Amino acid sequence: RITRFYGTDPGKVVVVPELIDLSSWRQGLANAALSDGPPRILCVAHLYPRKGIDTLLRAFAHLQRPAVLRIVGVGPEHDHLNHLVRGLGITDRVQFLGYLPFDALTAEYRNATIFALPTTQEGFGIVFLEAMASSLPVIAGRAAAVPEVVSEGVTALLAGPNDEAELTNKHERLLDDPSRRAAMGAAGLQRVQRYDAPVVARQFLDAVGISSPY
User: Fold this and answer.
1) pLDDT in tens, 82-94
2) 3-state percent breakdown (helix, strand, coil) of the chain, nearest 5
3) How far apart are CA 124 and CA 56, in angstroms?
4) Could you tell me how far CA 209 lies from the centroid of its own chain?
5) ∠ CA 26-31-35 to the nearest 5 degrees?
6) Ramachandran assignment for 115, one of left (phi > 0), alpha (psi -120 to 50 degrees), beta (any other)
7) Which of 96, 134, 169, 210 has the fewest other C-beta atoms within 10 Å?
8) Whole-model pTM?
9) In the sheet that 68-72 helps form, which strands lie side by side, from edge to edge?
């Protein structure tokens, strides 16, 4: 798009991804307390229509497995989504947690079973890095930048945009298969290394032609 809109030489275009500070994230996970209870599906997102949380809720309502859905984030869709939860009759299985500080957020990742965000529009998706850094299998929408960040079939299962039935099926498959969840989580932990802050910083410095000061 850069070359098309601005006539830039393709050879001068370098894509440098977003980053995650894995050192801080690991420390946060290590400090997090463990909780008991049914399997947890975690969603972390600003509550905007494009995040597809309404689709996630409808898919979750069809889930024939014991699980709870915990949603972290704030935004203009909050009241609409709460109304939807009541209409679907799943108020006892869905918790809206609002904004969480770092320690509470890492505790949610530490205690989750699956990370889910069926977004239909995403420029990158830092939360997918957080999920992989937490050794979580990911369920997401097959849209925008998501397939570039995760690896379909390896670290994540992807569903078509707004496809409730496929989304329900992906959740059931992972909830029924602990070994696959573990394998996908391990693969995600390996994949996220490429997004660690020092690695991405080096890519950026190389792209702009600056020698590392270290």
Assistant:
1) 999 999 999 999 9
2) 50, 15, 35
3) 19
4) 32
5) 110
6) beta
7) 210
8) 0.94
9) 94-98, 68-72, 40-44, 114-117, 138-141, 156-159
